Each structure stands twice: as C-alpha cells, then as structure tokens.
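2024-03-11 09:14:02 INFO worker-7 job=invfold-0412 stage=load source=structure_tokens
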C-alpha cells in the first residue's frame, strides 16, 4: 500500500496516463514500419505488447540486441510477443530515444 501511495503522491499514475497516447503511437509506428513482422500492438498506460512473427534465429537476435543495447523488455517466444514497460518516470525525450533504438534493433534484425 505504501508503494501505491508513493506512486500517487509523485503523480506516476497520472504520468503513465498522460504518456499513453504517445507510447501507443510509437508502437503503432513500429507496426507500420515493419508490417510483415509486427502483426498486432496493444497497450495501456506505459505497458505495451507487440506481437511478432519471427523465426527462432530472429528471436535470438532480438534478444541479443536488446541485451546489448541495455533495453529491458520481456520477450515471450511461446506467445510471440515483446512486452514493453518503460519506467513511469521516463521523460518524453527518453521515450523517443528508446523507440528510436528499438526501431534500429528491428531494422537490424528484420532486414
């Protein structure tokens, strides 16, 4: 309960809600850029899920690339999804930079 109180006091829930549209736009832009690989995106607040159609080798390369770039995501090859959940304190610029790096990773793996 203390964690929830701290989130509320620091406006983190509001922050996630405020950034939701921007965050979902970044996910949709990734889908538009890689339509042959990204079949579906969805999200709420700063929690986003991208459904990926990739080979085992591409999944391995995605995982290795995210680790190398220090981008923390959850890859689930069974469900063929990547879950994005940036910290609630992320700035607009940091979010933009993160998705630029994600785009570079996707381009490197999928081209």
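2024-03-11 09:14:09 INFO worker-7 stage=emit residues=111
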């Amino acid at each position: 309960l203390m964690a929830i109180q701290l989130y509320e006091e620091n406006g983190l829930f509001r922050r996630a809600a405020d950034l939701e549209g921007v965050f979902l736009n970044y996910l949709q832009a990734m889908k538009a850029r890689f339509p042959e690989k990204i079949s579906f995106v969805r999200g709420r607040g700063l929690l986003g899920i991208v459904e990926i159609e990739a080979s085992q080798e591409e999944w391995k390369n995605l995982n290795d690339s995210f680790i190398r770039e220090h981008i923390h995501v959850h890859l689930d090859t069974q469900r063929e999804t990547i879950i994005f959940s940036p910290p609630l304190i992320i700035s607009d610029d940091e979010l933009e930079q993160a998705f630029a790096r994600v785009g570079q990773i996707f381009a490197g793996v999928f081209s």
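2024-03-11 09:14:09 INFO worker-7 stage=report msg="The longest strand covers residues 38-44."
2024-03-11 09:14:10 INFO worker-7 job finished
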